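Sequence, C-alpha cells quoted for completeness.
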Amino acid sequence: MSQGSVTLNVDSHVGTIEFFHPSSNALPGAVLQKLADTITEADKHDDVKVIVVRSAGDRAFCAGASFDELLAIDNTEDGLKFFSGFATVINAMRKTSKLIIGRVQGKAVGGGVGVASSFDYCFATKHAAVKLSELAVGIGPFVVGPAVERKAGLSAMSALAINATEWKDAEWAREKGIYNDVFDTTEDMDAHIQQLANKLASSNPEAMKELKRIFWAGTDHWDQLLAERAAISGKLVLSNFTKQAITKFKSK
C-alpha cells in the first residue's frame, strides 16, 4: 500500500485501528481504501463494542492527500477516484453502528482534519494544530468540508478553508468542536482514551447504536454529496494552475 499500512487489534472489546505512512501519515488511495475497509470490518466484528482510530508515531496525525498521487492524475476519472478515497473513509465512519473514538497526537492537514472531524469523540494533544491547505494548492476542501462543517460549523470551516496557509492550534479546534478534549502529553491523552473506551465497551450496544444514528442524523445523502464534491476536486486538480501550485508546495 505505497509503503503504508492499516492494522486492527481487538482487546477487551475495543477495536483499535492504526494507520501509517512514512510521509507524515499521508493517505494515498490504497491506504484510504484499506482504512475504510478496516473500519467496516471492525463494525461487523462481534467482539468489538467500540472503535478507536489512531495513526502511528508521535508526530503528525495525518498529512492529508499524497502529493505524488495528486500530480499523477491526468484525467477526470482518476481525479474522481482519488478524491473519493476520503469520501469513502468519512462515509465508513458515518455508517458504523459503533461509536468511534479518535486519537490525534499531532498536526492534521487537509484530509486529516476531515478524518478527525468524523470521529464521534476526539482526543488530542496540544500539538494537534489543524489546517485546511487545499486552496493553497489550487483546489479546496470540498470532500472533507461537510464533515468539518458538521462538527465546527460553517463559520469555522470557512475560516480554515479561506485562510489555507495558517495553522489553528488545538485549543481553537477544541473550542470549535473538532476536538472534545486536549491534553499536554500523549501519555495523559492515552490514559483518558483507555478509560473512555473501557466504559463504552461495557455500555449498552443498542443504546450506543441509537446515539450514533442520532449524532449523524441528516447525513443520509452524503454518499451522493461527497461523490459530487470529489468530482469538483477531480476536475480542478487537472488545471495547470493546480499542477504548478502542488509542485511548488511540494518543493518547500
